[in-house]
From TrEMBL:
One of its GO terms (cellular component) is plasma membrane. Keywords: ATP-binding, Nucleotide-binding, Transport. This is ABC transporter ATP-binding protein. GO terms for molecular function: ATP binding; ATP hydrolysis activity. InterPro entries: AAA+_ATPase, ABC_AA/LPS_Transport, ABC_transporter-like_ATP-bd, BCA_ABC_TP_C, P-loop_NTPase. Residues 14-263 form the ABC transporter domain. The lineage of its organism: Bacteria, Pseudomonadati, Pseudomonadota, Alphaproteobacteria, Hyphomicrobiales. Signal peptide: none annotated. PROSITE patterns: ABC_TRANSPORTER_2. PANTHER family: ABC TRANSPORTER ATP-BINDING PROTEIN (PTHR45772:SF1), CONSERVED COMPONENT OF ABC TRANSPORTER FOR NATURAL AMINO ACIDS-RELATED (PTHR45772). Gene3D superfamilies: P-loop containing nucleotide triphosphate hydrolases.
Amino acid sequence: MGGFCLADQENTLLRVDGVSLQFGGVKALSDVSFDVKKGELFSLIGPNGAGKTSMLNCISGRYRPTEGKIEWRGDNLLKHSINDRAKLGIGRTFQNLALFGHMSVLDNILVGRHHRLKNNFLTGMAYWVGGARREELAERRFVETIIDFLEIQHVRNEPAGTLSYGLRKRVELARAVAIDPELILLDEPMAGMNLEEKEDMARFIIALREEFAMTIMMIEHDMGVVVDLSDRVAVLDFGRVIAAGQPEEVLADEHVKKAYLGEEDEVLDALADEQEREIA
Ligand SMILES: Nc1ncnc2c1ncn2[C@@H]1O[C@H](COP(=O)(O)OP(=O)(O)OP(=O)(O)O)[C@@H](O)[C@H]1O
């Protein structure tokens, strides 16, 4: 199965169509198709090495697909550079934290915000005339809103590298939110977190949709989180989409269960838990 059909073209924000990606002899992605609709939370799941991060990298611009199309609001996304994709409204977080450890939390977030600013000679001149200064104050206010929203006021001046893992993940999310994206790509937002940190992160992700009206595409291994938060799910295995649809029906799919055989026990346990929940 190469993907699933587009039920509602008008609402489609991102469209991945027949994407393949090859690294030498390794085919990381084979004919992958799916769409992400405006306002939804779409999860991409699958066993280790299935191609999830590679797919996210194709969308954010880090990798260029060997074949296939990716469209953003109906336009060819692949012609745009990484920076342009951020300006178009696509933000992301990374599986392995990518913060500047020696810089303060605030400065890390401002780095994210910088992608959205028009920083050139003319705006430099305009600064002295007053217009750009007003713009800068508005920028500051926006960043403060994010700091409040993610409840990181108490560490705003701390070097990011000194924070707990859960807080660093939150600062990374803040930096991605700072570009004010329409679509935010989250690569394993809960990885390595304890239960309390996961609950906090889930609360923030829900609020991103509801309060900031963001569309979310998430890679996540925690099946409980996937079922609780996602509107739709696609499953990759060996670079191919093997199932897609509502979370509960996808996790009950025989191909999906088979794909996860041999994965860590936690994943299998989580799948079993979901099935018990479904039966109960
Ligand atoms: N830059 C690269 N160079 C060569 N091979 C790569 C590169 N990036 C990914 N791959 C290969 O592509 C395949 C898919 O990897 P990818 O990281 O996308 O999987 P994943 O589903 O995100 O895995 P995980 O859940 O473990 O993060 C793997 O075989 C991986 O080794």
